[in-house]
Amino acid sequence: MTILVTGATGSVGRLVVDELLARGAKNVRALTVDPNRAELPEGVEVVTGYLGTPATLPAALDGVDTVYLAPMPAKVKDFAEAAEKAGVRRVVVLSGANADSEAMAPEEHWFYYACEHAIEAAGFEWTHLRPGVFMNNTLGWADALRSEGVVRAPYGQVVQTPIDLKDIAEVAAVTLLEGGHVGKKYILSGPDAITQVDQVKMIGAAIGKDVSWEELTPDEARELWSVQGMPADVAEFLLEGFENTMRNPQVPVTTVTDLTGRPGRTFAQWAEGNADKFA
After folding, report:
1. Residue 93: in which H helix or E strand, if any?
2. Domain residue ranges in the chain
3. In terms of C-beta density within 10 A (0-12 exposed, 13-18 middle, 19 or more buried), how is residue 266 classed?
4. pLDDT tens digits, residue range 237-276?
């Protein structure tokens, strides 16, 4: 059985490759734009291609049984067509925790649900992985913490359940290699429900530095993010997400433990492991 990992040099895909090898997978194929710069592990078959360039997919999919699919809604129908022609049987989709709410909206607003819907409609055996907030999103605070020791942002008291990318990758490897996961939609979270203020404090403890949170109003956040170059639609998306989470605090689920047999990594553990990026 050959497993194709798309986005194999991306933040999650690269870890999926490592987890597959760690679990003894023998026929792992990695899709990447530039194999010469990919620096993928020995024993991985590296092929040139990109989900955004459908013409590269037939060769990459030749002989493939199972695919880890990175989210690219604009081209997912092209992928599904190429994968069906190649005889692919199973697809594990990296989706998002808000896929069901997207499904209630008009199609032009779909992102994660667009990927899920296309794969289901094509008739593959599917598994959807639906993580929420990524722990490494807080790396966006690194410059401010290094220079001033202060994070300025809105909704400091919003309760989230951030997850380590390694936990997502490990769950992906389990679902790619083991049976019993077809037709499952797995919500993924970290083990703790914590505020953004808590996260900043944990980063401070990890780097041994006195750091703080400065609360911004939504309008102040829009102004700051605009100066930093964030598109207005992205800013509104973030603010809407924070406001919704304030009304509906996130609650941890046990999926990582249930599927991998070990507890998910806490944010404090992640911060300690990534302290060098903030110090």
Report:
1. strand 90-94
2. 3-131, 135-161+191-251+265-277
3. middle
4. 899 999 999 999 999 999 999 999 999 999 999 999 999 9
CA dist 130 and 132 (Å) reads 7
Query: Cβ distance 128 to 184 under 8 Å?
Result: yes
Q: What is the pLDDT of residues 216-245, one digit of tens each?
A: 999 999 999 999 999 999 999 899 999 999
Which one, of 140, 114, 139, lies nearest residue 128 by Cα?
Answer: 114
Contact 203, 146 (CB under 8 A): no
Residues 35-73: b if buried by 16+ CB within 10 A, e if exposed: beebebeeebebbebbbeeeebbeebbeebebbbbbbbb
Sole residue written with tokens 């023998």:
26
CATH class, domain 3-131, is alpha beta
The C-alpha atoms of residue 216 and residue 223 are separated, in whole angstroms, by 10
C-alpha 101, offset from chain centre:
18
| CATH code, 135-161+191-251+265-277 | 3.90.25.10
CB 111 within 8 A of CB 73: yes
CA distance 188 to 256: 7
